[in-house]
């Protein structure tokens, strides 16, 4: 089974979020399942040159985009047993920043054209091209509308993975003919038109052979108008080709027994986890009372829990719920560490709160990989009250470190966090159903009561979370079944 994995970012070369995490981990998992897999992505100037030192230039080529012909090279590199191909274009990818440029439609139309045009020259003809998000959505569209008369492409199948339906690649209608270089036929226009504009994700849903999302719950949610971002009807029309496959995480990278970025490595020791907590409190300027790290004292010394938030500060992540009950949260005997960045309204709010509650709240605006690992290892509870969450990565990483998530029951959060049951002692976290600030607050209060008053239950939660399985093995097996179904 030959699979070409086409994505706009992939770790360790470039990662801006969950997309890059998946791009860095799933190909190796597919290879372990027997796939002959190659990864293709743009060669951004943001990639660390040290990672590309061993690359070789395969060939140069011209790519036609309507009125413009642009040059690029295809460069190859084997990294950790996986073959990577990079589309190298100074004009399109040698820029400050990765996304958000004025010509995004043209940049990724160029990338998609380059991928397809390069295939006959790579010495690798894929059975399946696995595309990810709007940046690669033109590949299934082009295969059915621009390359369908070339015998080389006849039997190439496409799988399109939708990581977040909110981001759809919507552009002015003129890009079809004046940028992509396709004739705007009635059939094509029907499948890509979106309120008078062009929607690349809509086109990919219609033209791909299979469409996947990154969790089973999310594939059901996005067929509902509340979550579907105006594509729910399109998704219902194509429900026969939809499939939800849960993402995983890199369990080697996120392993508290081997993680070189945390203060103290541990496996099942709450006391060693408490050492991480005390050192993080010291680093972030918070009182260490309640850390349980002092000699001769237990993990639950004074039972002051450390809560954490790691991620983007946007409405999707439930920051409006946090804001609505923040004073009530701070009225409890707890501490909160926040790492991330995002919308100014939330950054400004957190700055103000950090001044108001200096002994309870510590914030770091921005992103620091080492600090993120240290917070996962130190915190007792992770807050993720998301409005929607296609999969979510933070809750899975947190559980690897024995940090208990508090989440809203949506998308991948619902699929990965099983609510704690006091009667059976089952569950690996706490959850609430409705998008409601006081329901979120009550869930925090419940979790803190378990932490503070029931050591046996908390230790059980720690073990349940720590032993939860989030590697890519099962997900890769499901993708392989999907690929085989298409090819057969």
What does this molecule look like?
The strands form three sheets. The protein has a nine-stranded mixed β-sheet with strand order 3-4-5-2-1-6-7-11-12, with helices on both faces. It contains 19 helices and 18 strands. Strand 1, helix 1 and strand 2 form a beta-alpha-beta unit. Helix 1 (18-32) crosses helix 19, helix 3 crosses helix 4 and helix 10 (270-284) crosses helix 14 (369-378). The chain has 488 residues and is an alpha/beta fold. It folds into two domains: 2-248 and 472-487, Rossmann fold (3-Layer(aba) Sandwich); 270-466, Glycogen Phosphorylase B (Rossmann fold), CATH 3.40.50. It has helices at residues 18-32, 90-93, 104-122, 138-145, 175-180, 186-192, 200-207, 216-221, 232-237, 270-284, 319-324, 326-330, 344-356, 369-378, 394-400, 411-416, 437-453, 455-466, 473-487, and strands at residues 2-6, 36-42, 56-65, 68-79, 82-88, 128-132, 157-162, 170-171, 193-194, 197-199, 210-213, 242-244, 306-313, 335-342, 361-365, 381-384, 404-408, 430-432. The longest helix has 19 residues, at 104-122.
């Amino acid at each position: 089974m030959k699979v070409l994995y086409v994505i706009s970012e992939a770790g360790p070369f470039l990662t801006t979020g969950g997309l890059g995490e998946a791009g860095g981990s799933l190909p190796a998992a597919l290879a372990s399942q027997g796939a002959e897999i190659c990864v293709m992505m743009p060669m951004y100037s943001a990639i660390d040159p040290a990672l590309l030192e061993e690359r070789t230039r395969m060939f140069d080529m011209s790519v036609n985009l309507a009125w413009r012909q642009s040059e690029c090279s295809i460069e190859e590199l084997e990294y950790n047993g996986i073959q990577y191909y990079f589309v190298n274009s100074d004009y399109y990818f040698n820029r400050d920043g990765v996304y958000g440029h004025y010509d995004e439609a043209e940049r990724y139309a160029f990338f998609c054209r380059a991928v397809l045009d390069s295939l006959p020259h790579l010495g690798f003809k894929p059975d399946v091209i696995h595309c990810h998000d709007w940046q690669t959505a033109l590949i299934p569209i082009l295969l059915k509308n621009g390359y369908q008369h070339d015998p080389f492409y006849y039997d190439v199948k496409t799988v399109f993975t939708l990581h977040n339906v909110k981001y759809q690649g919507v552009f002015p209608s003129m890009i079809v003919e004046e940028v992509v270089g396709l004739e705007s036929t009635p059939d094509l226009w029907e499948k890509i038109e979106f309120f008078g504009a062009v929607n690349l994700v809509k086109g990919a849903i219609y033209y791909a052979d299979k469409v996947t999302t990154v969790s089973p719950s999310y594939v059901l949610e996005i067929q509902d108008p509340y979550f579907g971002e105006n594509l729910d009807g399109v998704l219902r029309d194509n429900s026969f080709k939809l499939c939800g496959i849960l993402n995983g995480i890199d369990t080697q990278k996120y392993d508290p027994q081997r993680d070189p970025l945390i203060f103290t490595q541990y496996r099942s020791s709450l006391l060693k986890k408490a050492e991480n907590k005390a050192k993080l409190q010291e680093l972030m300027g918070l009182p260490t009372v309640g850390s349980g790290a002092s000699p001769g004292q237990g993990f639950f010394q004074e039972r002051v829990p450390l809560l954490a938030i790691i991620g983007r500060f946007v409405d999707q992540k439930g920051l409006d719920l946090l804001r609505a009950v923040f004073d009530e949260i701070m009225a409890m005997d707890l501490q909160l560490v926040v790492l991330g960045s995002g919308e100014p309204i939330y950054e400004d709010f957190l700055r103000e709160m950090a001044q108001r509650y200096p002994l309870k709240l510590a914030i770091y605006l921005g992103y620091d990989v080492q600090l993120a690992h240290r917070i996962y290892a130190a915190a007792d509870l992770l807050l993720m009250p998301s409005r929607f969450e296609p999969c979510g990565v933070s809750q899975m990483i947190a559980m690897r470190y024995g940090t208990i998530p508090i989440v809203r029951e949506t998308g991948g959060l619902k699929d990965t966090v099983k609510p704690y049951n006091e009667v059976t002692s089952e569950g690996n976290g706490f959850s609430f159903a409705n998008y409601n600030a006081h329901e979120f607050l009550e869930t925090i209060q419940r979790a803190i009561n378990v932490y503070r008053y029931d050591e046996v239950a908390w230790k059980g939660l720690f073990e349940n979370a720590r032993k939860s399985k989030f590697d890519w093995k099962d997900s890769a097996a499901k993708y392989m079944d999907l690929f085989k179904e298409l090819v057969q």
